[in-house]
Amino acid sequence: MQQKKPSFLWVSHSSIGDYLKCPRLYYLRNVYRDPKTRNKVNIITPSLALGQIVHIVLESLSLLPVEKRFEKSLIDRYNELWTTISGKKGGFENEEEELEFKNRGAIMINRVMFHPGPLQNKALKLNSPDDLPPRYVFSEKDEIILCGKIDWLEYMPADDSVHIIDFKTGTNEEKEDSLQLPIYALLVKNCQKRNVSKISYWYLEKDNEPKEMPFPNLEESEKKILDIALTIKEKRAKNIFVCPKNGCYACRPFENILLGKAIFIGTNEYQDIYINPPKEELENYAEEDLIPF
């Protein structure tokens, strides 16, 4: 597997998603580093905190033998991990909001306990040579690496293939033109030897089993990804990342960090984590407070 080269641009589903939402958001989440700590910055929200804990609980099952995965209560593990995001650490404004999100997550975990489905079967993992996400050289000519972390790979013994499953903890379904599953399919295809036979989303808040999705045209997907990656690379070379709305819902909360309005929570590996100020402050942005792009 190819190793990271200094000049290579790394792209993933999340970084591409940031850019498509707002170029300025992409810059603030993927390029900007705090001048003092040299760390990247991120904002924790209740939805993000909930998703992180549910994913940790479920993804950890793939490391256990099939017969041991449900020996211990997943809810106990969930409650134990919840303490790491309780209060401001999870971006919760009050106890009532935290309880609402915690209950939502408990429902998802209980759903999986009663309807484990594919989580009862053998699972595989994409290997990485280090602590960075699995990846491959997407374009040697353009110096682009595609990377990503896949929630679950179910092994399908009938034809020695794999089933890609992505856990969803949000309330909205993924858009039809999303590049998430195509990117995952490309990663699996290029990072191991087995074919991909199925790709699915599992909407844990409402579905008892994964929802199979149409298999993407990987050639078309590669072209879309390359076009976006080349645009990002050009923007990075020029260091120009402009919000088309001069401050939108996606980038403005991150601007609070640069303005000193966000509340510092702590450091998670290479990221400094913040929470948004109260909602009323977010709604009262003054134009003169916005950082010029």
Task: Provide a brief overview of the structure.
This protein is 36% helix and 18% strand.
Number of strands: 11
Low-confidence sequence ranges? 1-6, 285-293
How are helices and strands ordered from N to C?
EHHEHHHEEEEEHEEHHEEH
Total helices: the number is 9
Please compute the radius of gyration using only Cα atoms.
20 Å
For the report, how would you describe the main beta sheet? Answer: 5 strands, mixed
Strand order across the biggest sheet?
A: 3-6-7-8-9
Distance between the termini: 38 Å
Question: How much is the average pLDDT?
Answer: 91
Structural class: alpha/beta
Estimated share of beta-strand residues: 15-25%
> How much helix is in the residues?
25-40%
Tell me what the structure shows.
The protein is α/β, with parallel strands linked by helices and 293 residues long. The chain is built from 9 helices and 11 strands. The chain has helices at 13-21, 23-30, 46-59, 74-82, 95-114, 180-191, 218-238, 252-259, 279-282; strands spanning 9-11, 40-43, 123-124, 135-139, 144-147, 152-156, 161-168, 196-203, 211-212, 263-268, 271-275. The strands form 3 sheets. Strands 3-6-7-8-9 form a 5-stranded mixed beta sheet. A 3-stranded mixed beta sheet has the order 1-5-4. Strands 2-11-10 form a 3-stranded mixed beta sheet. A hairpin with a 2-residue loop joins strand 10 and strand 11 (271-275). Helix 6 (180-191) crosses helix 7. It is globular. The chain starts with 8 loop residues before the first strand and ends in an 11-residue tail after the last helix. Mean pLDDT is 91; it is low at 1-6 and 285-293.
